[in-house]
Design brief:
heterotrimer, A alpha/beta (about 625), B alpha+beta (about 250), C alpha/beta (about 180), A: about 625 residues, alpha/beta, Glutaredoxin, Rossmann fold, 5 domains, six-stranded mixed β-sheet, five-stranded mixed β-sheet, B: about 250 residues, alpha+beta, Ubiquitin-like (UB roll), Alpha-Beta Plaits, 7 helices, about 25% helix, globular
């Protein structure tokens, strides 16, 4: 779409609005569609949207300012977001972004004057095993090289629609390198649901009056099946795969037992932790297991509605996910009458719009409700008052997949794998300096060294476990175990080879947190900026040991006082780095005592230009 | 008596009684113990965003303004470590905005300034951000000076829940978060705000102020000239308690 | 009698109001002069600190190359350096210019301003170049103590000075702490 100064035609906005209820919960989904149609949110559109869902213009502006993939300025016909995870950087993403900018004659982050294109950085796009990666008009470009960027630039210059670009550019591999007992092959759709319902003792599952069936006192097979499935979940000792490790059965039972007119099941597929990409693979190749796990949860807790909240970086999966949902409805695995039992359950997809914070369950719920994704007050927990203030189970994609397997094979089977405190297996997203990046499934308790051996990364100097918010471990710790009792993890496993400068890692992570802080609480909003500035100062060779002490002090402040997990874990990598990779900091210290907060000579640059002076006194 | 029916908890070693449903903050203030705070106004729903009221409950940090009081819990508030953190948080608020106390009409009645005094803050410690923020003086009665805003969200909350006008909202993210006004132009003059709105009465700093009322109280008689904020807050809280639950 | 403490003072981007406030200690100034000897100070017009002094008091923010040099000179020659007043502590009123680019400030003053003749931005090498912003002292050198206030009251200054001279903790009690 060419942009001139005339107001854009609002017809497409009206078409989009026709497909959405007048419900504030639709707001973010509408804005995403408008952004895709216009490549920005025109003021006129914002007004129409606000009126449609009955919120204020300021509320809409609040969302546009919050989500990275929404913009109030025109981004051009082609919008390129280069993934800015450290693994992309290690593969040369920074140079590639500059290269593409030069080829297009565009400045990074600024739309070309003729409205053709803009190039930006964005947080990790989840293609770390096949980077460097980028998104062009929402679709992932993988394994980028200069040659590929030449082609991309040519296609953009020629205004070739993205749909006509070579499919190879967008090829996304699963790279499933090692499977264990859980993900040998996808399970038969419906098998886990049938197994769960049969646990009630009724093999036929036919001709049940739903009202009777759901009455807890009825002792009906259908109800018994749900109870028995919960017992299996208890037996399995399944803990949440999102990193925190809360026991799934307790969450499900709590949700079930709170008196409420409705309940919800939410699958957290926001997967924003840089270096994490297992959900991408599960939702592509084990899709039914995930949806089946959600349906089971609905069955157990008594929910009729499930929501898959998925990051927009995975927009390329949209058609596939919708097709699987449609098939499951056709097969009676979703809908008003699941497996002929009268049990009603369906799943909607809600898209994120570029905000790491939305991986936090209460922020995710705010986002589903069409608001800025800011975390709620600590209490009540979402399982008590979540979506629409109703009891809501929020679980990770992998947790739901595991739940469906538990329903199929039983809790004891599941608990027979892994360790005492970490039952089952776990997916690890291996990326960085190794020969075979990709997805690895291991029973919990596997050592870091074993993963490194399998992926071909044994000469690593460090591994980042569980992403920037996790733990940086050095060679001395490679015999530690990946399990809740030792290295608890969402599955992220970024490998850093012997020649990497670990300070570059710190700098990338620090900038990530500054970019993703939601701005709600003081320590995170201001602290992540102060930390990024201090790290930049050290990077520029202008830092001193006093700045290092300052980093420590602010880190401690965030850990103690930040409102949510984002701020509390944002300094983890700094604390680890100072403990384990101090050498990479010290070699940048040019001053031993105090170093000014800013570059004194650079602060005279503007005056030098204005006066055309360059004499000795014009420098500091 | 079992611990659950004692209905008291320990705050810095002192026994504090509480009512069912009260927060640690409310119970402490009612008992005459000041806990520093900026984004919370006891007349409105707590928000727990400034984090100054962080206390340690049974060894773990929580914002006391949203933390339910539980019988028998052990709460630490007035410790050297927590007060140092409160100073740092206040300094963060001071450097992220532009706070020119000497020329500010709110000086002497500003909760940020008074809290800084109560914490013994002598400097801002961190580098100043010197952000560029807009001042909105379009409205005949009300001025919005974003330089002074500490993003406590009180105006947003009060305009939504009390005035039912939704005049204010936040936009941006992280350090770029700012207050926006709901109107076709984004200016206060074109919004539904009016001088009677509760939302414009409770700004803890000088970000939202009435025009024509500046410097009417002489230095020495301004609110926090008369009593420091720790005494003033507790007195006001206790008066409120007496009024509501007396 | 023990040898007197040496004091140096100066004003950078300030209004000398803090110095005026120091003079406001009234008759206590006689007591002060019994205890201290003034080295470089606008009060006696000494331009350069000779040797080391015990206490340096600086008012005003850092606005140009000269203020950086003077501040660094003070830091090198003062055992204890005290940032005095809002401008020194936070940038203060002069830092209101940070709302505008240096270009806009200079153009307003020397090119587009009312009554400007021979419009050009002064570029004489004798003139110190302006920094892009006005900064507080502690962003340029290490500062030992801060005395906020606009100006700090005579009592506050007296409190700090007498504490420093006597070797006590000079941090202000709440009653003397003011930012305006």
């Amino acid at each position: 779409m060419l942009r001139d100064d005339s107001p854009p035609d609002m017809e497409r906005v009206r078409q989009i609005l026709e497909t959405h209820e007048r419900d504030p919960g639709e707001l973010l989904q509408i804005l995403i569609q408008v952004q895709h149609a216009y490549h920005f949110i025109p003021a006129e559109a914002a007004e129409l949207v606000a009126d449609h869902v009955r919120v204020t213009r300021a509320h809409v502006r609040g969302l546009v300012g919050f989500y990275s993939f929404l913009s109030d300025t025109y981004l051009g016909e082609y919008v390129v977001y280069v993934s800015d995870n450290i693994t992309d950087r290690m593969q040369g993403s920074e140079g590639l972004a500059t290269y593409l900018c030069n080829r297009l004659g565009a400045k990074l982050g600024v739309t070309r004057a003729d409205g053709l294109a803009s190039v930006h950085f964005t947080s990790c796009t989840g293609m770390c095993d096949q980077g460097p990666a980028a998104l062009v008009n929402g679709l992932p470009l993988t394994r980028l090289t200069r040659l590929r960027m030449d082609d991309v630039a040519k296609l953009i210059q020629a205004r070739t629609p993205v749909a006509e670009w070579p499919a190879e550019f967008f090829r996304v591999e699963d790279n499933f390198r090692r499977s264990d007992v859980m993900f040998r092959r996808p399970t038969e759709p419906g098998a886990a649901l049938r197994a769960a319902m049969r646990r009630g003792g009724d093999e036929t599952l036919k001709e049940i009056q739903y009202e009777e069936a759901v009455d807890p006192s009825s002792g009906h097979a259908w109800r018994r099946g749900a109870d028995e499935t919960l017992k299996e979940l208890y037996r399995s000792d399944l803990r949440g795969r999102g990193g925190a490790g809360f026991k799934a059965a307790i969450k499900w039972e709590t949700c079930r037992d709170i008196s409420a007119p409705e309940r919800y099941v939410v699958c957290n597929a926001d997967e924003g932790e840089p270096g994490t990409f297992k959900d991408r693979v599960l939702l592509r190749s084990y899709t039914d297991m995930v949806f089946e796990g959600m349906t089971l949860c609905g069955y157990v807790v008594g929910a009729a509605r499930g929501i898959l909240y998925i990051r927009q970086e995975y927009w390329y999966l949209k058609a596939h996910l919708e097709q699987v949902l449609a098939r499951r409805r056709d097969d009676g695995l979703l809908g008003r009458n699941v497996l002929g039992t009268g049990f009603a359950f369906d799943i909607d997809i809600h898209w994120g719009a570029g905000a790491y914070i939305c991986g936090m369950e209460s922020a995710l719920i705010e986002s589903i409700e069409g608001r800025r994704g800011k975390p709620r007050k600590r209490w009540p927990l979402p399982v008590v008052a979540g979506l629409n203030r109703r009891p809501t189970v929020v679980n990770n994609v992998e947790t739901f997949a595991a739940a469906s397997m538990i329903a199929l094979k039983g809790g004891a089977w599941f608990a027979g794998h892994g360790t005492t405190h970490s039952a089952g297996t776990k997916l690890f997203c291996v990326s960085g300096d190794c020969e075979r990046p990709g997805i690895y499934e291991y029973p919990f308790g596997v050592s870091v060294r074993e993963v490194l051996r399998d992926c071909g990364g044994l000469n690593a100097q460090a591994v980042q476990i569980s992403g920037p918010s996790g733990v940086t471990i050095s060679q001395l710790e490679f015999d530690r175990n990946l399990a809740f009792e030792d290295l608890s993890t969402v599955g992220t496993f970024m490998v850093f080879g012997p020649t990497r400068d670990m300070f570059d890692v710190v700098r990338n992570f620090t900038h990530f947190f500054r970019h993703e802080s939601c701005g709600l609480c003081t320590p995170c909003r201001v602290g992540t900026s102060l930390l990024a500035n201090l790290v930049d100062k050290v990077a520029a060779g202008k830092g001193s040991p006093m700045d290092v002490e300052e980093v420590r002090k602010i880190s401690q402040l965030l850990k103690t006082t930040a409102h949510c997990g984002l701020g509390q874990t944002a300094p983890n990598h700094l604390i680890d780095s100072l403990l384990k990779f101090r050498g990479d900091w010290d070699k940048r210290m040019m001053v031993t005592d105090f170093a000014p907060a800013f570059d004194l000579d650079a602060a005279l640059q503007e005056a030098r230009q204005l006066t055309d002076r360059d004499d000795a006194a014009a420098h500091l | 008596m079992s611990p659950d029916t004692r209905r008291t908890f320990l705050l810095d070693g002192r026994e504090i009684p509480f009512r069912e449903g009260q927060t640690v903050f409310d119970a402490a203030m009612a008992a005459g113990v000041y806990i520093p705070h900026l984004c919370h106004n006891p007349d409105f729903e707590p928000h727990s965003s400034c984090r100054l009221c962080t206390v340690i409950v049974n060894g773990r940090p929580f914002a006391s303004c949203t933390q339910p009081a539980v019988a028998g819990q052990d709460v630490k508030s007035d410790t050297a470590e927590l007060n140092e953190m409160r100073r740092s948080l206040t300094q963060m608020l001071l450097v992220e905005g532009n706070h020119y106390c000497p020329s500010c009409e709110k000086s002497g009645g500003c909760r940020l300034q008074a809290t800084a005094y109560a914490l013994g803050l002598q400097d801002n410690h961190f580098p100043q951000f010197f952000p560029l923020r807009d001042v909105d003086a379009s409205h005949p009665d009300i001025i919005l000076d974003r330089d002074r805003c500490i993003l406590c969200g009180l105006c947003v909350r009060i305009s939504r829940t009390v005035d039912r006008k939704n005049v204010f909202a936040m936009t941006g993210r992280g350090i770029d978060t700012t207050i926006v006004v709901d109107s076709p132009t984004g200016l206060l003059a074109d919004s539904r705000v009016s001088r009677e709105d509760e939302a414009v009465q409770h700004c803890p700093v000088g970000a939202l102020m009435m025009k024509g009322e500046a410097f009417t109280v002489p230095i020495g008689e301004r609110p926090y000239d008369r009593a420091p904020i720790n005494e003033d807050s507790v007195a006001q809280f206790q008066a409120r308690e007496a009024r509501l639950h007396g | 009698m023990a040898s007197k403490r040496k004091i140096a003072t100066c004003s950078l981007a300030g209004c000398f109001g803090c110095h005026m406030s120091l003079l406001d200690i009234d008759e206590r100034i006689l007591e002060l002069l019994e205890l201290v000897e003034f080295d470089r100070s606008p009060i006696n017009d000494i331009k350069v600190i000779r040797g080391m002094v015990d206490i340096g008091l600086i008012e005003g923010g850092v606005c140009n190359a000269e203020s950086v040099h003077v501040l660094q000179h003070f830091r090198e020659h003062c055992r204890v350096l005290v940032s005095v007043g809002e401008c020194a502590v936070t940038g203060g009123i002069p830092s209101m210019r940070n709302h505008h680019s240096l270009k806009a400030c200079l153009e307003e003053s020397y090119i587009r301003g009312i009554g400007v003749e021979n419009a050009h931005v002064p570029d004489d090498p004798e003139l110190p170049l302006l920094l892009d912003k006005v900064y507080p002292l502690h962003e340029v050198v290490r500062v030992d103590y801060h005395v906020p206030g606009c100006p700090p009251s005579a009592d506050a200054l007296w409190y700090v000075l007498s504490a420093l001279i006597a070797g006590r903790d000079p941090r202000l009690p709440t009653a003397l702490l003011r930012f305006d």
